[in-house]
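Hey team,

Sharing the SRSO17 transposase run so nobody has to redo it. Sequence (393 residues) first:
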Amino acid sequence: MSWDTELTALTTRIAGPLFTRPEPREAFADLVRALLADVPRKNSWQLADHIGHATAHRFEHLLDRAKWDVEILRDEVRSYVITHLGSDHGVLIADDTSAIKKGEMSVGVADQYCGLTGQVENCQVMPMITYASSAGHAFVNRRLYLPESWAGDAERRGRAGVPEHVAFRTKPQLVIDMLTEEIAAGTPFRYLCADSGYGRDPHLRAFCHERSLGYVLAVPVDLPLVAVRGGTEPVGHVLDRLLALGRAGIWERRSCGAGTKGMRVYDWTALAVAVAGQAPAPGHAHTLLIRRSVAAPTEVEFFLAHALAGTAVPELIDAAGMRWKIEENNEQGKDLLGLTSYQVRKWTPWHRHVTIAMLALAFLAVTRATLPADADEVIGEGKDRLLQEASPR
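Structure output:
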């Protein structure tokens, strides 16, 4: 089948039960196609112009006033990804992305830390979940972080259409909510991966312990571990102690997977640890992975792994390396598919736009997975060769 035929089949299958009227069904298919096209700015007006609509009204109606359940679409995106990319050795990766906005009307916007710039910005923060396997990777779940300043402001909530049942949740709590949904959906995964912003949260780790879920999470240097001679010590002291004992040969150079610039090679060491106040699940053990940059040996990162006892360290290193897949998805979503180029301000339109962009990304990931093994197209390197082949003409 051609790219165009595959896309038409996908949008037709999903749109059939999702919409009761033909107009939103057609607008949905057009919007997915337009998001995949080479449009410089992917707001509703430019997307409408590209697809041949006289105005943006059809897309605006689809995102705002049309009657359809965006959670059903989210479930369809997940099902599509798992059908084509799913594996018992897959991983779920949690991270948040940001959308810098002007003004204070966009739902959830506030002065808060922005991962795009590394500083406080007026932005929205979106915790996301990527599913990744050896076949490919794509988003399968999403949340919009609602700061406390929004969660407790009834007038603001009302203007933005925030449902009454939505309460303040921290970003790790939102990830727990999404993990709960993935477990209920039967999503096959071996590990949860995330950066230290999530790895430092004891409630997220406890959730995994209680359900015997594996994880490989980056953790901060002050995470408390049970010390060898009693008491506790921060993670950062473990490496200092090993080096003080003269164990210079503790490092082993290994790749943790391919990146956009080639294999990611680091020096690694690992040792069994006990986390203060948090026992692993029955039959599981905690392992501390320490990763050192080859080019800059003072650059060190720590990972806490929770896995079945006896799990080989190379498997944990491979899982740690999968964390970057969600960063690639964030980049692809923004640069190629307009993930954060929306002009919507309310709760429902935000979820609809982001979920439709997730479907477009999933389609690219599945398309990439069907290419020959020696294909050199890589989704995400700007408007790369895969997009050129896949763009509607």
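Residues 188 and 362 are 17 Å apart (CA to CA).

Ping me if you want the raw files.
A.
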